[in-house]
Amino acid sequence: MKRDSNNDMVEITSAYKSTADASCERLAKNQRVRRNVPNGGRLRMDRQLPFLCVFRSGADSAAAGTDLNHQLVTTEAAYLFASGEPSHDEGLTYLVDQIRGAMQEHFGLFLLIEVTVDDTLAFDFQISSVDESFLPSTLDVMEKELSAIQVGDRPARVDRSTKCETILSRGLSSDSSGTTHCSICLRVRPFYLDGDSGKVFPLVLQRLRQQLARAYRRAVAEFTSGDEKPSDTHHQTFGPSALVKAARVVDKQLCDVSDSFDYLLQVTPTNADRIRDHYCKDADNELLPLQYRHLPYHPNLLKRRLFSIEIERVEDPTLAFLFWEKQDEIDRQLTSLRDLHLPETTIGDHPQYSNFLSSSLQLYGGPEDPLVELATAILERSKKGARASTGLCGKEDVTATECVNATQLAAAAREEIRYYQKQMCEFSPSVEISKTIASGIMVSKDRLLISDSINISAARVGPLLHHEIGTHLLTYFNGRCQPFRQLSAGLAGYDELQEGLAVLAEYLVGGLTVSRLRTLAARVIATDLLVSGTPFAKVVDTLNERYGFKNRSAFNTTLRVFRGGGLTKDVIYLRGLRNLLEYLAAGHDIEPLYVGKIGLQHIPYIQELRRRGIITPPKLLPRFWDDPKCRERLEAVRGKSVLNLTDTD
Q1: In 153-244, which residue ranges form alpha helices assigned H by DSSP?
Q2: Could you give the CA distance from residue 562 to residue 347 in angstroms, rounded to a whole number?
Q3: Secondary structure (3-state) at 511
Q4: C-alpha 77: how far from chain center
């Protein structure tokens, strides 16, 4: 029996040595390493890196890969998890030492971060080193980051032990070459496990992994910076730089489900013109039933596909967070489309709350009090000069020579598209004149849809094209040029920033008129009335009589927010513009916002992924970017509120 055990150890050690030789050969060429090690372990190195995070499972674990605690290190670009059995000691020490030697030869230093789990630990974390004098500032940074982690309702308790030795750290410290290689021992109390059953609390572990990743990378950045602390080295650059297969698969699967439907197109009535004409001519203001496109799928079957996507296999905590968030949004969209129905329950004398409205509030939120106050201020300030109409809904009061119809608008759109195609050959949207969308213009993925009944002022054409083509289509195709496909499909909650950028573009080209801003404010007021249970006809009357909108405009605005049973999306135009102005006032750059369809809440993640090389800067910027006057207006808008914008009209 003893001989068999020795033979096993020899085989295990030999396997580690083979892995070490193959890995060092690839690292010498700065190539990625993905290698399995004995008993279910794994080594990953994205590239040449001056550190390695190591986790060893308990000696009683059946296999290293089945011990979920190893997820504490798999967030990183350089990690190794392996069995804690004594038979692995020699081979594992050899593997780590060979990697250390190869990386130290390249960087001149090397940091080993060895993580263990200890359910007897009196603290949440304990950090130590073989010789703290080698890296006091690195341990300071690690301690600070760990202390910032929340454990339940309190900050984490961190113990700074004087000295800790493991088999691996002793192996490294015995080197006598005089070069710099150090180790940190991190012991973690598994507060993400149920103390009785040992089951994982997945959301707690997910959050912990994100926070530990920050701690690891900040510690490595401090370790490598020395006394110079170069400003161009950010701790996030030490994160994974590759979109690995598991992430690519999940990315594609989420996009496939998302691309199966167009949410906005599905909730847009196909008979809006006929309904408006009937409503305005009917003495009782009867609203005919709204008709929608048939769903080309069963929402529950799409949900089955959606929740079969194995996001849990994505090791990168940032990508996993964005995937989970998007999965949640698609689920809510499918629920609302399943509940899509005729809006009678929100329209009569005794309106009722609809399931669709509940889903809409989850997706877009409702109009918060400060936003309603802003909308009211816009309408009250601009009410003087606004003309109310008590007659039938009619066309806007413009002459035939001032109007642009669908054919003319489509020609102007194609000309604008040709400009962008000269800048980027991948920019290839189609322009379609449609009979089944409400009067106006909209973007559906790579299509620009124009209502065949559209009739707008010639002065609105330029700002409108900057809104639809220079923002919505531009960010879609910028996203398509990225390896991360969610940037074209849209990260969760991207709509608000999209509309904020689009309306800002109208302002920058001199097309954000008082009338246009009043329309955006009216949408907030109408949504607020909808959510409070005001009947359809009463909302129309309020916009008409109190705020001076013509019947046609009041009806169109009200219909937009009542579609489906209550769609609160229209609050995001004014909210998006307000929040974007606050973002610019804080001194932030607008260029990163065009990388794809993202929200302001995603900026930290986008910047991280750019630093890590997973995504690249926007390939195409709006046309106004090269216009000196527009750039001057962009700089001048910093510090202004939405109310200030009306002063320049």
Answers
A1: 167-173, 202-225
A2: 8
A3: coil
A4: 21
Contacts for 400-403: CB closer than 8 Å, 24+ residues apart: 402/457, 402/458, 402/459, 403/455, 403/456, 403/457, 403/458
> Three-state DSSP class for 395?
coil
Return d(Cα 610, Cα 437) in angstroms, integer: 38
In one-letter notation, the amino acid at residue 194 is D
Query: Looking at residue 130, what DSSP letter applies?
Result: S
Question: How many angstroms separate the CA atoms of 264 and 144, rounded?
Answer: 46
CA-only gyration radius of the chain, Å: 30
User: Taking 60 as the threshold, does the pLDDT of residue 647 lie above it?
Assistant: no
Which of 440, 449, 402, 645 is closest to 552 using CA atoms? 440
3-class DSSP state for residue 217? helix
Q: How far apart are CA 469 and CA 412, in angstroms?
A: 11
Place of tokens 């939120």: 365
Q: How confident is the model at residue 375 (pLDDT cuts 50, 70, 90)?
A: very high
State the Cα–Cα distance between residues 536 and 576, nearest whole angstrom: 25
Strand 447-451 relative to strand 441-444: parallel, antiparallel, unpaired? antiparallel
Question: How is 76-136 classified by DSSP, letter by letter?
Answer: SSEEEEE--SGGGHHHHHHHHHHHHHHHHHHHSEEEEEEEEE-TT-SSSEEEE-S-GGG-H
Q: Which distant-in-sequence residues (6+ apart) come within 8 Å of 639 by Cβ? A: 585
In this predicted model, what pLDDT tens digit does every residue of 422-453 receive, in sequence order? Answer: 999 999 999 999 988 876 899 999 999 999 98
- Round to whole Å and give the CA distance between 256 and 78: 31
